[in-house]
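To whoever is on call:

I kicked off a structure prediction for a single chain this morning and the downstream step that reads the tokens threw a length-mismatch warning. I double-checked the sequence; it's 82 residues and nothing unusual in it as far as I can see. Pasting both halves so you can look.
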Amino acid sequence: MRRTWGEEAVIYNEASGRTHLLDAFSDWLLQQLEAGPVAVEALVDRAVAETAADRGSIEAHVVNAIESFERLGLADIQMRHR
């Protein structure tokens, strides 16, 4: 279950019974991952196209967020490039 308020989203993970607060970018990223398999590089490309942030910052945020999603049980992902 997902609820959004402006720049934040609350995600309820039914499997763990835990609720998570995400910033808008992390919520966008999780939605991209939920839509289907995608390479990290492709996610970074999409994010760079939608923001004014530099590629290095975006890539670090994407990798860190994916690792957090896995740890929290929000996603089961094998990171791959291209």
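Update from on-call: the warning came from a stale cache, not from the record. Cleared it. Sanity check on the structure: The beta strands are 2-5, 8-13, 18-23.
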